């Protein structure tokens, strides 16, 4: 057993993290920037950062992931990375020809004190940014927060550095996507269209990280929110932020800079959160919920009723990212399941409070921890003390699932060993159906596998 | 096809072989140009991949969480026993640590870890930030070593302090501190160390078995399926056999200087190089001709079954063209030969970390018209693949989806290979994988081959 060294006894650790349930900010910034059309993410740091992020995203999406790096050397680390970044901007525009470069910092450039705002301004002053092209930036120090923080920071950078208020409102609404998959973003767009609401969704990685095979390697795939759309976001009637940790900061910034009012919702995962999303969108835009969406909801509720007996009381351990964990936990509770342990490496009191609120009301005995030392080692120890029927989390959960011999559903980031997440959404009613199907499949497969011959049933 | 420009300043790192024309040496060993979409990694990555397979040590990444998260069990370096190397340990440095220093945190982390896991040794990797905030990790390591009684070895792998190759060197530096601390009693005169073999998909086991069949004692494999105790007695071996030019040559040179152990360079890929690596070792022990006899026997036994099994692939693949872009240049040499043995030619050959000699040799080996690149990027790779009409790309994780988007086959000859490609059996696996990917029915549906609706 790979994790045979995991002891049952939980001791407080002083600093050490074992098997992290998070990663660092820059990869989140890179992912967010890929959701802008014609944008090349740029990592202002050592070469390794960029390489690691690209590799991880490539493994998760099985897609080419393009990003450039400042390639810090020892000199840059002593004298500052300004020269590297200026040279990089020039090189990128002349060779890779993006419309936008989205620069994010790293622990290295943050610590030596590079000021991205100042450097990008200098690039503009020095004429290194061609007419009609853009360089945006986000500060994403790796020693604060997690990959989710980095995503939120870049989305905020996108919102503040593009959106302008012309003073004339447009009949459209912003939807700011929390960290979700391309498939989820596609589904958000479909639902909005179904409702008849014109939206600007950003970022939008659909048609970027789920691109078709064309026989060409396209540096800037067809998807992504366009500059024109992003600019117009400042004239939208209001914003819906899907996720209080990964999306709300951008909505707040947009309200400040362009006076676009906002509402924050959970990411629409599961029945209740999707209900809130559909209601919010229909009320904000003053449209009626079409019959087709009502029918979609009905189908999900129907399945939930049909299958409740198989899910009732099942004990679940889950780990992942805040904005996904909250509605997922709520959905599990709606399905009459029992979340027993919840872990997220992403720190933050806001998330902690929200989760506590949900748990206090509906499942007060659930173990929950986020932030430092909330890692997979801790989760594994908890699972040893209070066993579960099911584990939900990213691919790294497979070690625990194997050691404890529990069914496992891949959910979150990264998923390195399966496909599906890019193509089939978890959000919306159809996403809810997919989740129920997955839950049932693993649990019933297990039941079949373990059943005694006389108890092995055709109709379960 | 449309013209794709080559990055200015990159021209010296690209080169097309033309017979009868004298051409300048390729520029290499340089850091990547700022702003290029390089496929390269950093110093830390170099150290991490070299030491990672040592399975009974703990590997602690001192830095913010990312460096540990991205290198958690991504390389299939198999262990026959303990699997401590597959866990991820990080000091997860926070803002306050950056301001006040992370030494205390590192100290406590190490004490906790060593108490819990009882490893044979600990490797402490410093990341970019540690180099900046000035943590004295040497002092912490010394203190912990004294208190715990196990070797605690700092690896100075700050990401920005050079290229991946410098990371190999930092790793070797740590290994040098271990080598020479174990007993060399009972080591045969007919003994070797296997250097630069990381036991991906169990490859080191295959190689080791060949040598053992020849009557050679393998003292230590550095670092595949590695054990601290074996590393400590590596200085007792008579010969160092080095694979993978970049990562371990430095260690071999150090061991030669300090312990007088000579080294030879070998490759275990392809029939030709695999056989040569057995013969070269046998040649080193002329006083015992049985070794050479045994080597010949191993080769003849293996080739007898392998050769006929390759013919099916060769028949299908003859005339197909390959592009190679891998980490080390030495691997490229073997791949060219291996591909030729199944009827394929190489139209693009490149590496992330080759040196001047490597590229000179590559130039010599390649056919006319072959493009040779150092530290390439996706734009160049796609350009040359399309221009030269390659049917296959051999590369690593970041290159795979590019090949598939272009509609050509792919073979991972990097971290993510799941079946052994080394040894004689590896040649069969390699040919099978190439065949399966190049001849896949999926390419009839890919637009490059005219498969649109």
What does this structure look like?
- The complex is a heterodimer of chains A (460) and B (453).
- With 460 residues, chain A is α/β, with parallel strands linked by helices.
- Chain A folds into three domains: 25-158, Rossmann fold; 173-285, Rossmann fold (3-Layer(aba) Sandwich); 291-454, Rossmann fold (3-Layer(aba) Sandwich).
- Chain A has 17 helices and 14 strands.
- Chain A has helices spanning 25-33, 47-61, 74-79, 82-95, 107-111, 116-125, 147-162, 182-195, 227-232, 248-258, 271-285, 291-311, 322-334, 349-362, 376-385, 398-404, 428-450, and strands spanning 17-18, 39-44, 68-69, 100-105, 134-138, 173-177, 199-202, 238-242, 262-265, 315-319, 338-344, 367-370, 390-393, 408-410.
- Chain A has a five-stranded parallel β-sheet, sandwiched between helices. Chain A has a four-stranded parallel β-sheet with strand order 3-2-4-5, sandwiched between helices.
- In chain A, α16 (398-404) links the parallel β13 and β14 (408-410).
- In chain A, α1 crosses α7 (147-162) and α13 packs parallel to α14 (349-362).
- Chain B is of the alpha/beta class.
- Chain B folds into three domains: 43-178, 3-Layer(aba) Sandwich (Rossmann fold), CATH 3.40.50.1980; 191-299, Nitrogenase molybdenum iron protein domain (Rossmann fold); 318-417, Nitrogenase molybdenum iron protein domain (Rossmann fold, 3-Layer(aba) Sandwich).
- A six-stranded mixed β-sheet of chain B has the order 1-12-11-10-13-14, with helices on both faces. In chain B, strands 3-2-4-5 form a four-stranded parallel β-sheet, sandwiched between helices.
- In chain B, α1 (43-51) crosses α7 (164-178).
- The chains are: A alpha/beta (460), B alpha/beta (453).
- Chains A and B meet through β1, α1, α2, β3 and α3 of A and α1, α2, β3, α3 and α4 of B.
């Amino acid at each position: 057993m790979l994790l045979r060294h995991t002891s049952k006894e939980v001791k407080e650790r002083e600093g050490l993290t074992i098997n992290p349930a998070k990663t660092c900010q820059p990869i989140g910034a890179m992912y967010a920037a890929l959701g802008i059309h014609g944008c090349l993410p740029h990592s202002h740091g050592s070469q390794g950062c960029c390489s690691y992020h690209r590799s991880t995203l490539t493994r998760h999406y099985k897609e080419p992931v393009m990003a450039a790096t400042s390639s810090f050397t020892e000199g840059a680390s002593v004298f500052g990375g300004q020269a590297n970044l200026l040279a990089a901007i020039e090189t990128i525009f002349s060779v890779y020809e993006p419309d936008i470069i989205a620069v994010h910092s790293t622990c290295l450039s943050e610590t030596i004190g590079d000021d991205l705002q100042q450097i990008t301004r200098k690039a503009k002053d020095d004429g290194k940014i061609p007419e009609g092209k853009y360089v945006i930036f986000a500060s994403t120090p790796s020693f604060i927060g997690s990959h989710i923080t980095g995503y939120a920071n870049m989305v905020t950078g996108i919102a503040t550095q593009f959106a302008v208020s012309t003073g004339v409102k447009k009949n459209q609404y912003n939807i700011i996507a929390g960290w979700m998959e391309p498939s989820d973003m596609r589904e958000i767009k479909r639902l909005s269209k179904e409702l008849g609401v014109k939206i600007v969704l950003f970022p939008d990685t659909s048609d970027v990280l789920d691109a078709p095979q064309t026989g060409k390697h396209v540096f800037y795939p067809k998807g992504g929110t366009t500059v024109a759309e992003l600019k117009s976001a400042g004239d939208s009637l209001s914003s819906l932020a899907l996720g209080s940790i990964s999306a709300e900061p951008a909505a707040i910034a947009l309200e400040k800079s362009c006076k676009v009012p906002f509402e924050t919702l959970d990411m629409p995962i599961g029945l209740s959160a999707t209900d809130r999303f559909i209601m919010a969108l229909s009320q904000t835009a003053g449209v009626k919920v079409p019959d087709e969406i009502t029918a979609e909801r009905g189908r999900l509720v129907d399945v939930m009723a049909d299958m409740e007996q198989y899910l009732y009381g099942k004990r679940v351990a889950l780990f992942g990212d805040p904005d996904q964990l909250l509605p997922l936990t709520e959905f599990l509770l709606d399905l009459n399941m029992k979340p027993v342990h919840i872990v997220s490496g992403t720190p933050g009191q806001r998330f902690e409070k929200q989760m506590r609120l949900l748990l206090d009301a509906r499942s007060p005995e659930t173990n929950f921890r986020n932030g430092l030392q909330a890692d997979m080692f801790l989760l594994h120890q908890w699972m040893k003390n209070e066993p579960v029927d099911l584990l939900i989390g990213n691919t790294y959960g497979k070690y625990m699932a194997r050691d404890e011999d529990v069914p496992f559903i891949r959910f979150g980031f990264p998923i390195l060993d399966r496909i599906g997440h890019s193509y089939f959404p978890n959000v919306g009613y159809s996403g809810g159906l997919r989740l129920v199907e997955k839950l049932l499949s693993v649990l019933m497969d297990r039941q079949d596998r373990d059943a005694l011959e006389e108890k092995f049933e055709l109709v379960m | 096809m449309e013209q794709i420009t080559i990055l200015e300043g990159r021209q010296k790192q690209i080169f097309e072989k033309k017979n009868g024309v004298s051409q300048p040496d390729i520029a290499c060993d340089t850091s990547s140009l700022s702003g290029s979409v390089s496929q390269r990694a950093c110093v830390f990555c170099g150290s991490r991949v070299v030491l990672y397979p040592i399975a009974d040590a703990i590997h602690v990444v001192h830095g913010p969480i990312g460096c540990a998260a991205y290198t958690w069990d991504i390389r299939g370096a198999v262990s026959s026993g303990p699997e401590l190397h597959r866990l991820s340990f990080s000091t997860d440095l926070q803002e306050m640590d950056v301001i006040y220093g992370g030494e205390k945190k590192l100290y406590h982390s190490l004490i906790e870890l060593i108490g819990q896991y009882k490893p044979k040794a600990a490797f402490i990797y410093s990341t970019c930030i540690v180099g900046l905030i000035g943590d004295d990790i040497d002092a912490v390591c010394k203190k912990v070593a004294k208190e715990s009684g196990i070797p605690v070895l700092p690896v100075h792998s700050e990401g920005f302090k050079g290229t991946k190759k410098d990371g190999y060197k930092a790793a070797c530096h740590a290994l040098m501190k271990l080598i020479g601390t174990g007993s060399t009693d009972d080591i045969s005169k007919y003994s070797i160390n296997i250097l630069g073999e990381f036991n991906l998909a169990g490859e080191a086991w295959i190689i080791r078995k060949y040598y053992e069949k020849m009557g050679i004692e393998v003292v230590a494999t550095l670092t595949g399926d590695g054990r601290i105790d074996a590393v400590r007695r590596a200085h007792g071996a008579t010969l160092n056999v080095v694979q993978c030019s970049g990562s371990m040559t430095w260690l071999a040179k150090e061991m030669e200087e300090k312990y007088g152990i000579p080294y030879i360079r070998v490759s275990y890929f392809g029939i030709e190089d695999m056989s040569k690596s057995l013969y070269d070792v046998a040649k080193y022990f002329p006083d015992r001709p049985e070794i050479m006899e045994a080597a010949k026997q191993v080769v003849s036994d293996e080739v007898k079954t392998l050769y006929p099994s390759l013919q099916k692939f060769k028949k299908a693949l003859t005339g197909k063209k390959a592009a190679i872009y891998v980490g080390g240049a030495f691997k490229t040499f073997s791949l060219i030969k291996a591909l030729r043995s199944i009827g394929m030619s190489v139209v693009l050959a490149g590496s992330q970390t080759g040196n001047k000699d490597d590229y000179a040799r590559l130039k010599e080996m390649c056919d006319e018209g072959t493009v040779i690149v150092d530290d390439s990027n996706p734009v160049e790779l796609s350009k040359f693949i399309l221009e030269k009409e390659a049917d296959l790309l051999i590369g690593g994780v970041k290159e795979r989806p590019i090949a598939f988007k272009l509609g050509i086959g792919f073979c991972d000859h990097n971290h993510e290979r799941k079946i052994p490609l080394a040894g004689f059996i590896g040649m069969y696996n390699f040919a099978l994988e190439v065949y399966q990917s190049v001849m896949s029915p999926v390419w009839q549906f890919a637009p490059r081959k005219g498969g649109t609706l």
